[in-house]
Amino acid sequence: MDNPLYLKGLVVILLAFWAWDAIKTKRKKRSADPAIAHADARERNAWRYVRWGFRVIQIACALYFVQMLIQILLA
């Protein structure tokens, strides 16, 4: 890990894998039973603010991570 070129290449590969994982679409499973689908919708609605807060933290960490990677690549 003493070679900066090796480290930068590793960072680029990790960034590419991370971007691919973030961009790919996530498929939602549909429930055949309408009662289960309705209960799932109620639960998602009840937890929406917790999920939003978690998503904001994820985005903040991702932006910090990208900023650090850019600094490493340009150093």
TrEMBL record:
Keyword tags: Membrane, Transmembrane, Transmembrane helix
Native source species: Leclercia adecarboxylata
Name of the protein described by the UniProt record: Glycosyltransferase family 1
Membrane-spanning ranges: 6-23, 52-74
